[in-house]
Structures are given as structure tokens and as C-alpha cells.
Amino acid sequence: MTQADILIYIAGALAVVSAAGVVMSSQPIYSALSLVGNMVSLAVLFLLLNAQFLAAVQVIVYAGAVMVLFVFIIALLSPGREDSPLRDRRALIGGAAIVYVTVQIFVLATNGTTYKKGLPTATCATIREAVPAYRLIQAGQPASCNPFPLHGNENAVPIAQANNSAAGLNGVLFFPDDVNRVGNVQVTGGQLFTTFVLPFEITSLLLLVAAVGAVYLTRRSPGRERAEQARASRRPPLPAPAGESLGPGVAASPKAPAATGEPESA
Amino acid sequence: MLSSFGNIAIFAGVAVGIPAGTLGLALLLGRLLRVRRPHPAKDDTYESGMSTRGPAWVQFNVQYYLYALIFVLFDVEVLFVVPWALAYRDLDKGYGFAEIALFIAILLAGLGYAWRRGALEWE
Amino acid sequence: MIADLAHFSIGPDYWWVVLIKGVIVLGFLATAAAYLTLAERKVSAHIQLRIGPNRVGPFGLLQPAADAVKLLFKENTAPAGRDKLLFWLAPALMAGAAILAYAVIPLSGTTNVNGYALHWNMAHVNVALLYVLAITALGVYAIFLGGWAANNKYSLLGALRSSAQLISYEMAVAFALIGVVILAHSLDLEEIVNAQQHAWFIVMQPLAGLLYFVGALAETNRLPFDLPEAETELIAGYHTEYSSMRFGFYFLGEYVNMVTVCSLATALFLGGWLPLIPWIHSDWLGGLVGVMWFLGKASILLFLMMWIRWTLPRLRYDRLMNLGWKVLLPLGLLNIVITGSVVAARAAS
Question: Would C246 be classed as within a structural domain?
């Protein structure tokens, strides 16, 4: 076992433990935090697989943005403690069944796939010769011919077409050592903006749709809001029930975000 | 091959180990040194002299959530621009610029919509 | 056996080299944070025509030590209804995140010591800038959880305000940094500094520099953006309920954060260790002199932050969010478009 193997087992174990924490925690905030831990562990796994950009994205977007949103929702709804799902027999049986089926599918899917430690060096050298974009790679033999840092799957070697090398980064065979020499994010960018331009621009449209949807669902339209304000002004103001005040420090500041509605709703 | 993140792992060990050790020592020392006169009032929540009513875990302004929602979208967009910025020198300039200009224009449309609908207005 | 152990590594460098560097950096950050509190009091005193602490040691130089001892002696109280685990974890997370971000900041250029390439940072990471962004993104939890766990309404409000503010400005900062990345063609901080040999990026990217500095003020919760703490309305916000050493850790985290953002600004915009007056190159001493230049530039930025704190009033929350979303973010996008078109125009001509 190499050091990388040891690290991958540690990170994998952390990922499994934190994933278990997500479903086992009785408090939603701990579930959410376990999920953050899980995402960071996955980021470590990505690092060990030489995918630095993916690891950074994993932490920044998932752990740093999506989970902040989750935590906000949890704080917003302030749900109470839940019973541990382990006490529910039906949930336990159902869960076990799902795990069994998933494992079986996984075994079936990987059946017949053999894992090799990289390509034969001769093949590797031939490919290197054949791809003109290799001029980009600086002089010096790469440390290994291993397409993946740990267990190379020969069938899975992504051989990009050696066409359209306008970016100069195209058509590179993705051996991790070579990618690291050029720079992980540089290679990603080169691919993203030449080979995968169309998906990229479509993604921006998708994000636009998401933004519009989010704003539309959470904001009432100005017209409706005005109508409701008009209705509300005709109604006599309700006396605030006792216990809704948030204390003098907050009430004194009209701009303070004290619009909490029912404090004891939890 | 292991990347330089291995160094960060070691540093994380140092950055956690030494302060934790110091803190442990400080707490141990503190337990011996510091005054300890427990009183129920000391365990009360501080609210400028008022006695607290109910838990603090209450529902709050939905606006915070809306900011977080828009933030997720823009965060994804930033991370799409980063690889572009790195590859820009090697890309065909007019082509590369048009790509990102289109991307940013679509982005701005989203921001403009949120702006116009008052999603960025604090209430 | 001993030799094997000495050559063991999980990174590109021997573990003991990293260990020694780690201890030095940690000591440096702790000392810097301690003396920044003194500097802050001195600066504020002189701005307000006072003298500031001058009783403990010459010029009050032993004041931080006295403060540490005081924190140690303070009774450790905590609200009864708190979430015990998170209340304990949050301050540690704050200090930890602030320190970890420093791992990739190069204090000087790589120096050749008897054939050994000595990096002046913990880890020479090729995605350093993304790493810093990722660590900053996780720092949000430290503040939010601390405020949430205390079960205090002021704390919760402070925590919410702070998290919303942090994420808003984090994004504006990220967009501002794109301009630098275009010019430097790298996310590696050492290469970014080396790309400034001819002109510092503050000259070529003044808008980005300004955006970054404003964002940095907001991310460290400094005035005029210290809404989360706003003592007049929220009574220290997310750390209202913290006392003794736990409070000390929040305090440490905040000041280390200041050092980190100012160091990052130095590397990104002020040419890092590059000297104004070239003097010594490429050896041991040159490396050390580089560190001096770096720290000198960072100190100026730190002083600027204090100056601003004691000069400007606090922004109202709605204006703060407006500034982030309606001014800084569009300006950040504008900066990308300008930089991109200038680079394209230069390539064409």
C-alpha cells in the first residue's frame, strides 16, 4: 500500500462516517454539518485523484454555497429534534433493501472490468508521439505512464481527439503528470472553451433560468404586493400578541431584520 | 504522485495540534487559576438586562435566504470564469472574448431580473 | 530507520521541513495578532488625541501578554440553553480557518539553499487562489454556528447578518480577482507575484484592487462593515455570549484574518516580496529581505484598515447589501470585460 492508498482510505472512511452522520443525526443542523464534512472529504478524494479544480469547486460551491443555503433554511424553519430513523423498523428494512440493491447493481456494473496499473510504457510513448499537442508538454519524461494516479482503467482512458488545437491545450491525453505540468485548471479551461463551448453557454442559460425561478418563487410580483398592501391598509391593525417583541435593542432599530413573525412557532 | 496538498495536511496538523495543546494547557491552568463562582444568573442569555423570553431559534427574515440563493448561482458563475481567465492567453482572442462576453451578458440578465423584481432590496 | 523517517513525506517536501515552517508561521501569526490588538489601540488613541496603553512595559509593549493572562483568569460563563458542541467548535473553526488560509501565501520568492529549493510558504499549490477562496467559504460556518449555538437573539441576528454579508462580498471579491488571473495567467500566488516584475497589479488593475480591499474590509467584519458586531444594536453580535479563552479564540481568528487578507492583497496587487529598490538577489539573505518587503507592504495595508476603522461611521445594513450587490458585483464584471478587451486589443495590434 502506498501513501496515496492510505490517504484515500482515510478520506473514504471520513466520507462514509460523515454520510452516516447525515442520516443518523437527530438534529437537522448536525445533519447539515455532517453533509459539509462529507463534501470536504470528497474534495480530498478529488485531490488525491489529481483533480484540483474539481476539489476546489466541490468545497466552494457545495460546502461553501449550497450548504450555507441549507443551513439558512434550517435556521429559517427551525425544525425540532427528530426521532432517530433507526428506531423505525420499516425505515430500517427499506433502507437495508435499497443498500442491497445498490451494491448488487454496483457489482454487476463493474463485473468484467479489470483494473490495471496504467498502460504499457511502449503504448504510452506511441500515443505521445502521435498527438501533436504534446509539444506543449515541457521536455522531460513524465514520471509515470499511469492514466490515473491509483488504479488505471485502460478502457476509461479519455483519448481526446487531436483536432482543433487552436487553444494549444486540445488533444492532450490526460495523463495526470502532464496535466499537472500544464496546470489542472488551465487544461480544464482550454477544453471548456474550445471543445465544450456549446455546453458551457447552455449552462449559463440554465443558471439564468435558475436565477429567474428562484427570484420568481420567493418574490411576489409588484402588482400583487400593492393589492395586498391596499387590502392590509383597510383592515384595522392587529394588536401584537405578547411575547413577539424581540427586545428593546432590536425594536429600536427599524432597519434591523427583526421580522420574525412567530418566535415560538418552533 | 502526491501534490503539495500533502504539505497542507501536515500544516493542518500543526495548526490544529499546537493551538489545541496550548488551549488545553490554558484551560487546565485556567481551571486552577480562575475564579469559579457559579450562579444561575450567569448562565442566563444576555439581553441587555431583560429576562429572555423563549428560545432564540425563531423564524427570521426570508430575505437572508434569498441572498443565499442568488449567491449560489453567482458562485457557480465565478467558478466558470476562472478557467476562462487562465486559458484566455492561449485562446483565440476574439473567439475567447465573445464566449465570455456572451456568458457575462446572460449572467447580467439574471442579475437585472433579480434587481428589477426587487430581490436585492432589503426590507 | 532515522534516515527513513527523515525522508518520509506525504507532500513534495520532507515532513520536518513543513513542520518547522508550520511552527514558525503559527508563532508569527499568533504574535502578529497579539500585537495588532496593541497597534489598534495605539492607532485609535492617536487618532482620538489620546496616548493609548503605556503602562505595561516600555510603550505598553507587554500589554498583549497582560491581556492574555487576563483572559486566562476570566471566568468562563456560557448560556444554559446553548448547543454545547457547536458553541465549543465555532471559535476553534474561526481560528483554524484563518490560520489555514495562510498555508499558500508566499512570503518571498523560492530560494536556493545548497541545491534545495526553499519555498517561503507551507505548500506550493498551483491552485492557491482557489484554495484561499475555499477556506474563506468555510469560514462562514464559524461565525454562523457561533451565533446560532449561543441561543441568544442578538447572536443569531449578528450571525445571520454576518453570513449574508460574507457571502455577498465573497462573490464580489472573487469577480475582482479574475482580472489579476487573466494578467498573471496563473492561480499560483508565487507566479502571480513574479508576473508583477514590470508593474504591480495595483497599477494595471486599480479597480480590482479597490474592489478587493473593500471586500476584504467586509469579510473581516471591520468598520465600516462591522454590522455583525455593531455593539450599539447587537452588543457584539455573534460572540455576545462568549467569554474567557473562547472569546480569545474568536479575537485571534479575527486578527489573523486581517493579516491573511492584507498578505493576500500584498501578493496580488502590491508585488509581494518584489523590492521597490533592488538590492540583493537570489540567495539566503535575498529571501529574507523579500520577507521584509512583503511584511512591510502588508503592514501598510493593516494600518490603512485601522485608519479606516477609526475614521468612518458604520453603514446601514440595507446600504451594505446594496453596495455589495448593486455596485461591487457589476463593477467586478465590468473589470473582467475591460481587462479581457484590453488583452485582446493588445494581442491584435
Answer: yes
